Fold:
Amino acid sequence: MTDVITLGWRERLALPSLGVAVLKAKLDTGARSSSLHVEWLEIDERDDGTWLRFQVRTTRKGGVSDPCEAKAIGQRTVTDSGGHATTRWFIQTEIELAGQTFLAEVNLTDRRHMLFPLLLGRTALNGRFQVDPSLSYSQTPRRAVREPT
Structure:
């Protein structure tokens, strides 16, 4: 049996398939799905399905990614912590965290009033990580590590 990695309640991670090298995330075992803040969202119907174009806010002070594109895997109703239900688009994307790269389903939404642009829910964490709420930023994304000169 492999050891489960212990992470803090907030961590830095990367979204390589979206071109996001470093992003702060809140790890939330109480949330089923993961949610990513997008500045804008465009829907493009193509022969091979629905594609979404969007831009990720990478910092609270307005840093943004280059425009991203991902194939939609569908829409689902998500109930937020306040009990409000909304229909959101979902994508599947790579997440790089604690030396692991894995695919996770993420919904795209407006999180501009939240402290973290990404909420990583228990579906993405399950079987990979455990969360110790006394820890914070316990990992360094591989892309953020600088090679000695």
About this structure: The chain is about 5% helix and 55% strand. The first strand starts at residue 5 and ends at 7. Confidence is low (pLDDT under 50) at residues 144-149. The CA atoms of residues 46 and 77 lie 23 Å apart.
